[in-house]
Structure formats: structure tokens, C-alpha cells
């Protein structure tokens, strides 16, 4: 038998024989050198081969068994376990449908997280975006193969090239230096960087009319931390929350994790349709409904506030991309109209600066401020990313952030116009884009049948273009007809040329499937068979 | 009536009249310009004074009322509320004993957090460190007043001056640049930076004998995030956890927040005393018990693992400062002995690099890996501090981290020897330091009466020296005698000169209180009256 394991390399690394053997065999299994079902050498044989004691080898085998990489049959030897060739990186094992019931030690909370993950994974196929496919024999156009530039409309946030990294990295380095010289005391408390909270409060007062000071603001690591902690503070089994339908999955997850009930409320062209829900918490995106982009009407805003007042409920207003608005001043946020302290306003910088920067914030009513701070401190006793928080504050007060936003708004407005224009002139009739004057994506309803939509998505994957399917954000609404299919075309990471090319490919796919026929006939165009 | 409010300044800032008035009055209340109980001008009068409509003023008053800053009596006018002069920054309101029962909307989880905070705040007086006091008339020594350099032995971690910030800030800036050019894709997944996980795994294999690869590691924002999430996954009402007594408060909080029961287990000079606890989770600090610094004996380590195996329980091994060891190789961590995947090993970089850097990690058994990743993603869907994670990885692989650690270890060893020497030669008999060969503090038992200890602490506050009282980490243990008083002398932020000066002041305080008499007599020294 040759030496199949990188034992000596591991021994050099870790210095302990049984560990080295454990690591070497595990690596061989992970890399497929040892296949599932394969029999391992006997401990005696392996000990001889590598000049080890049988005890060391046995110990390595025991550890492999405990971790599930191998299985020992009594008197039969030791075999590579069936699933051993896959890395257990979380996602993988859930896709295999590993049962949450196999974990007796896990709490109800943990079990709910696992179940949610399993449900999402199983519905993920059509739900999210389709991966690019290899060209099928059926697609004959040779130009597809030469195109190395696939186009993905799946939202990625602002492309890295559109962020002034030189400015940013200098600002961060300056802050680390400052912390190095003076320490971090006086810069922060458990609510986060003081100067950042001041900068945010000033901005919210000026630009959004929200009456707040730095003492109302809690900095979080992205807006999801605020949302999940607030859910945990306000929801539990026996309580109920309302969300818009469609809705960001992270919010649904935060609610379901608590064990609370969930009402998914229909939205129309004026946003969520208010009801007298029997619930204690409402999540809403009034400035720009996610993902449809519709604006919540002023009267509905008042109705939601009345509901919260009557029910003594709270509203979490997620203003996830109000900063990206090129079409005039938005309506006042709920928080600006909130006279009773029933609204928590949540925002984020991860969209304007890229997802590598995890800074969000919440404007919190008095009653919830201390609970939220305590909740945050349970996980983060000290503020996270303090240097980045300070850098952002410095960048905001120095005018850099505003300069970046002005530039970005202009650019996004231009890209959005290009995208709408392309959708209308090239795919007229297939998609109806919803109107919007902000954001980083266009939401568009599919005007054909569901079956045709799925065919188109698959053909587009072959043609090298894809987008996020709107159904990814749909919640089951009992006894209501399914929402028509829709698409989310993100554009903030693309150039105008890429947008054109992407739509051209969708058109090509639609032509190949003869989906454009009727639209063409109306325009007197040539019918594609 | 003169103009008491900064209305015009606020108007310039926010542009909306009622907001400006709301903010201006709130500021006046916060700053004490308007005292509690003071009557506000009538809406008519204020409207005249500032040229506003009465509607705007009424709206501002309504908002102030909703937020609790003012109270309106029917037909009597509007008054500044009694507690309005204090900022509601969380800590303040709890110290006022605000009742959790006043928050009907809060979940059981949130209520437990509030109750814990209330308990900690009420026991905080003697429990933690005493603030420096103003010199009392009784203390007559004029040298106290001239001493501007007060000495605090309260642990602060490594002083900022001992960290190579130039190196670090360049490394962080380099990483931001890299993210700017290439984006962050490929660098990370939900478990954190890939290169950092590799660097940590390599280090743990080499230095701690823990058989792990990057796929076993989850990066967290400090070790508390890992601890709190694991508690939430493994504990709930009806379950029980065991902790060492004394114990880090954050761990106690994480357990109590879940509603689980808590057994606080006595520790002796060999660490926690194993029992057959009816529990499903054990938190333990084997390498260096926190805060006593004692090392858990090898046989006890085996006993704990046997217990976990028998009970199908998990052990969270918090190895919070194993990196700071100047006295030879430590015993193997529990994780290195863990053949059944029952141990989660938790570590942090916040101690070696300062609390401004929030990077911790957990080495997670297979069974808990996916649940922990899902739990983390609920709050942080993307890794936080990615640039810092990458920078740390780069710094580790480039040898910078090891250089820093070698230098720091030498330094800390020297400081610790100095501190022990001073404690023994100057305060002989008052404190008995526990032996240790690692860490950033010395734990010492007080040998006198409790009453004398409290007198000494108070006198030291006057003399300008303080430390953390060991009772801050004591848990109530039913039916067991109270642990003798103790002190935690942190030294990693001090110079040798400061250590000397601090101990000299303690000596002076002890002399002033005649506490040194007996010790002196034994040595044939002069008796101080």
C-alpha cells in the first residue's frame, strides 16, 4: 500500500502524532482520496506503515468516528462514512436535508432556525436566482460561447469600483492611529461611536425630518442586527407580527426564530394595505417597499400609526435605501410622524458603501432604548468596528460621504433610466417595470404565463444572463391567489454597456422560445418561429 | 421672557419649525436650563415669541409629552417632567430603578435582561471597583493632592502604547484597498474570513494541540458573541447550565437571559470541582480560571469530559488569555482531549490587541456548526469587520502577530513579577496573591476582615488608587460560606513605576487605617498607630 495520507506534512504542522494522523485522514476524506464506503487500513497496518504506536492510530480513528468521518463496524474494520466526502460547512449539510430532530440538545429557538433553513433550502430552486448553465446542445447560437462576459442582474449593491476606497482606507487608518495614540475611551459607549451617532442624528433631522439626537440612536452591525434584536425583545410564542408581502427574507427569519405568529399582508401600488391586525409588531418599508419599490401613501402612513397607537404595538420602519433617491424629496418617514414613540427607524450604510462595511443604526423610542442596548451588549459587550464607525463619522462630517452620495445618485439615476429604456424597447410586453425614483434595482412584473417565465429563466441561464426571481420574497398567503411572477433587476454593480448586453441576451432567449412573437406582431415585426 | 431655547440654531439644522422647537426644548431640559417641575410657556405665548403658528408649538409639546420630557396637566399648563433632566442613556434609567413591569410589550427574554441589569446595578456599589474619591478632610497628607497620577489596577487590557498601531493600520488599509479593487467575494463565507480561519486553525494545532481545520472555526465579534449564541442554542427554561464560581459576568448574563437554571460550582486551587451535575452545559476556563488564575488539573479535565459524555452535555471552554503565558507550556485544552465532539473552544483577540478590535472565534463540534452559523447569520447575515479579519490573518501569516506576542509576553512577565514583589514586600500579610504564570492580572486573597477590606478600599479611593473587587465575580452559592474578600490587580496597562506607586499608595492607606500593625510586629517593624 502506498502512502495515501499527508501524514508527514501534518506532523510538521502540529507536532503530535495522533493529531497529525487524524488531520491527514480527514483531509484525504474531504478531498475524495478516500471515497465513501472505502475501508481504512487496520490500526496495526497503519501503525506499521507510519512507524506509529497502535494507540496513536486508534486514537485518530476514534476522533474520526466521533466527528462522523468514519464508521466502525464491530470486527469488520473502519469505513469512510457515506457523507464524509462533503465538507460540513453548514449550507451543505442542510441541503442534504439533515434532520433537526437529530439534535436533541438544541433549544426550540435553534430548532426553528434549522427548520427555517431547511424550508428555504428546499424551496430555493426556482425561488432565488438560477445559476448560469452550460450551453445546452439545443442552443445553437455560437456567439453565446464566445461571450465571456456573462451578465448578472442579481443585486450586489454598489460595485466596488464606485466607492472611493482611497479616501476610505485613509480615513480608517487615521482612526486606528488615533485609537492607538489616545485609546478608544471617550469615543463610544454601548450604543456605538458618539461622533457617528451625532452625524447620523444630524443627517436624519435635516434630510428626513426625524426629531432625534445622538441619545436616540443605537449603532448596530448592519440593520439586521437591530431587526433581529428588536424581534427578540418584542416577539415570542403567543405574539404575532405583521410583514409586507413580498418581504425581505431576513425579516421573516427574525420573526419565525422567536416562535411568534406571522401575518403576511398584501401590498398594492400604494404599499401595504392597512388592517386592524391582532398583532404587536409591524415591519414596513414605507419609503420604498422591498422589493417592489412602491411608496407607501401618506394616508396609509397615518393609518398604520393609528393602528400602532390603538394596539399599543410597535412599528419597525426599515428605510433600507432612502439615500439612493434621484426623484425629489421622499414622503416623511413614519418616524417623523410618530408622536407616541411607537416607531423604530432602522437604516444601514451597507448599501451605500458596500456589504463589507457592516454599519447600521436604529432610532429607538425611549421605552425600547435600554432593552435594545442590553440586548446588544449581551452579544457585543463593546462596540464592534469602532474604527470604522469613527471613520464613517469623520467622512460624513468632512463632506466625503455627501460627495460620494451625490455622485452615486446621479450615476444610479442614469443606470436606472438605461435599464427601463432597454426593458421597454427590447422586451416590450414581457415585463412591466414598476415605477420608482430610488434604489438599486427595478422590480418588474412578468406578463406571460408562469410556465413561460420558468422556460425563459432557464434559457437565459444558458445565454449567460440571470436575475433574482421575485418569488424569492413571496410569503405564503392563505386563501389568496399567487402573486404573478416578477423579476428583480439589480443594476448598481453594472455599467450601461452591461445593462444593454444583459437585456439583449434576455431578448435573444425570448426569441429562441418564441415568446416575443405577439409583441412583434403588434409592432409589425418579423415572427420568430 | 427671554429666549431660553436654541430654536433658531435648531431651525437652521433641521429646517422644520415644530421639530426645531421640539429639539430646542428637549435640549434645554437635558442641559438643565429648564428644571424638573418648571412650567413651560403656553403654546400661544411661545408661538408669539418665536413667530410660529400655535399648531407647530402644540405639535412640539405633544412630541415632548410622548417622549416623557414634559407632562401636561389639564387646564394647568405643561411642566418639565421629574426625570426629564436626566438623559435616558439606558444605564441611567436602570439606576433609577425603572421597573421592568412598566414594559408590557417586552418578551420574557427582554424582561430577564432588564431584571439582570437591575440586580447588577443594585449590587454594583461594593461589587465592582470604587471610583476615585475626592480627598476627605480626614486625609491630611498633602502629597495626595499633588499626585495627579492616580493609579488604577482595574483591568483594561493591554495599554494602547504596547500595540504596534503603525503596523496594524497599514495592514487594515491594505485590506480595504484589496477589497476596493477585488471586492470581498472569495474572501469569506458566513463563518468569517477564510484566511483568518486558516491562520487560527494552524495556530491552534501547533500551539494548543487542537485537531481542527478552518472548516471547524466560526469567527465572531469577540468571544461573547459565540458564548451568548451557544447559550441560546443549548439553553432554555427547564434546562440547566453549570458555571465556575467566581465567574465572568457576561457568561452568567448569557445563561440567565435564556431562562435556564444556573448551578454555580465552587473552585479550589485546582479549578472547578467536578460533580455529576444534572445539566446540559458547562462553562469552564481550564487554562486559567477567571478570575482566580488557577489551572484546572489534568484529572479534573478527564472527569469533566466523562461527565459531558455521560450526560450528553456540551462544554464551552473559554480560553480567554492562553496567549499570555510566560511560564512554559500549558496543559492540553479540553478541546484537545475531546474525542466525542462535546467541547466548544472559544478564544478572542480582544485581549492581545485591545478591546477596540472585536474578533473572537469558536472551534465548533460538527453537530453544533450549522446551528451556530445560522444563529450568527440571523443577526449578521454578512461577516462583520471583514477588513480587520483579513488584516489579522495577514498580520499572523506575516509573523507580525507572533512578534507582538513574544514581546508582550516578556513584558507582561516582567510586570507581573514587579507586582508580586511589591505586594509581598510592601503589603506583606494583607494580600496573598494566587500563583499564576499567565494573564494580565494577579488575583489576591485579602487576609483581614471584610470590614477592614471595605475601609481600605475607601481610603485607597481617597489616596488615588483602586482595583477591581473580587466579589464582582462571585455568584450566590446557597448554603455555602461566602468566599473571603479578594482583589484583582490588572497590570497590562501600567508601567513598573506605576505599579510601584500604586502599591505604595495602598500601603499608605493601610498605614493610615493601622492595618499593617500586626504584619509589622511579626517582622519586628515599627508599629504605626
TrEMBL record, chains A, B:
Domain of life per record: Bacteria
Domain named HTH gntR-type: residues: 15-83
Alphabetical list of InterPro entries matching this protein: Aminotransferase_I/II_large, HTH_trans_reg/aminotransferase, PyrdxlP-dep_Trfase, PyrdxlP-dep_Trfase_major, Tscrpt_reg_HTH_GntR, WH-like_DNA-bd_sf, WH_DNA-bd_sf
A GO MF label: transaminase activity
Reported cofactor(s): pyridoxal 5'-phosphate
Keywords, alphabetical: Aminotransferase, DNA-binding, Pyridoxal phosphate, Transcription, Transcription regulation, Transferase
A Pfam family per the record: Aminotran_1_2
Family label: In the C-terminal section; belongs to the class-I pyridoxal-phosphate-dependent aminotransferase family.
Name listed for the protein in its UniProt record: PLP-dependent aminotransferase family protein
Organism: Cohnella boryungensis
